[in-house]
Amino acid sequence: MxxxxxxxxxxxxxxxxxASFDVVVPAGSPWIHTLRxxxxxxITDLEGNQAVDTLFFNAADIKEHYSLTHTITAQGALYLGxxxxxxxxEGKAMLRIVAxxxxxxxxxxxxxxxxxxxxRYALDKRSMHSCRDSFMQAIGNSDYxxxxxxxxxxxxxxMNVPVxxxxxxxxxxxxxxxGKYVEMQAEMDVIVLISNCPxxxxxxxxxxxxxxxxxxxxxx
Amino acid sequence: MPQSxxxxxxxxxxxxxxxxxxxxWSGVLRRGNTLRLTDLQGLANVSALFFNQEEKTxxxxxxxxxxxxxxxxLTAGHACYSDMGRVLCxxxxxxxxxxxxxxxxxxxxxMEKKYGLLNYQTARNNMHRSGQEGLLTELTKWGLSRRDMGxxxxxxxxxxxxxEGKINFDTSHRASGQYVDVRxxxxxxVLLSAAPHPLDPRPDYAPGAVRLSAWRSGTxxxxxxxxxxxxxNERGFINSERWxx
Lengths: 220, 245
Ligand SMILES: [Zn+2]
Known about the structure:
The complex is a heterodimer of chains A (220) and B (245). With 220 residues, chain A is mainly β.
């Protein structure tokens, strides 16, 4: 793996023993949870090279969702990392990345789906697992009022999708490693919807989907 | 599948319409028709959203479009994918060479901050219009809402990235008379806004006008450059064709 950028990292001194919520999300599973304003949310890549496909919604108004275009244009850069403010489709701050031991996260690559698997790999790959099927399962089994139409742009924590100066785009090996984490503080009440990616056809997971840990701390 | 699709010529024209800078438009472009967008003054940005007209939960999906074709921008030979693995439309011809996919539309708050407030009461039809308001107005006409607003294609705008991911709006490719042909492979609800790009470096609100020209072109033929540009696109076109079986 070659890195053509210098990752900016910062660790956190929050203690998981003092967390108000702590759960392991198995490889290939969805997870949905509401974060309150001021809470801190950490995703830990337990075994390394995992892609964590994540969407955020304003808990008071689910029509407002995380927006990659607002986030990218506001910070003038494609990749997410320390100090990135995650903006909504209404231009409001949803969360801010306050600690990050990985250094960079993708927001262009979107979530895999069984339909896009037919395009990207082969027409008969439709029956495989996919992140968007996980999202459908999570919203179908919960009462948040979320609909397929709300599954817009997402973040892929720990994933590496470099764009070249001449506009090329590639999927590369993850830049994460066992135990790396990203931590963000909620600037509003938000619904977190995660698909812990089950993709087996490309290197975004190192071809080996693994569990992640989601930890939440109340405001100090 | 036809042998090939036909290129633009005046005698094939179905209709022609001017879209003034800053204004918005929506309509249905049916399978087998092509819409040519022409930048009349060399200042245009056209933000576009695409929906399957028969099942509007299916819509243009920017990440699937980029991933399938290993590109961060769109030009001739590319296709626009829906979230259901189908090609909604494709670009058989393009004299511009680069259309932005990841910056989205200018929102009203940013517009006011950048250009000041100029409303209808003060300026009548010279008021400042944002891409967000324009697209939202059109979305609402078709029973959709702000929850349906995803990343748009920004035709005629070039935004590049360096290796660190820093993005830059490139004005050097602008020229009056440039055009891009968008050929519809499905029946598509098209929403357009000709408001300025959110990163347009000009200090004044100065959106450019575009001409919309549609003709009956047929769909991508067996020999089509978009179909053959990668194995992914061959499968994407098959998925669209199966929808119409
Ligand atoms: Zn996935």
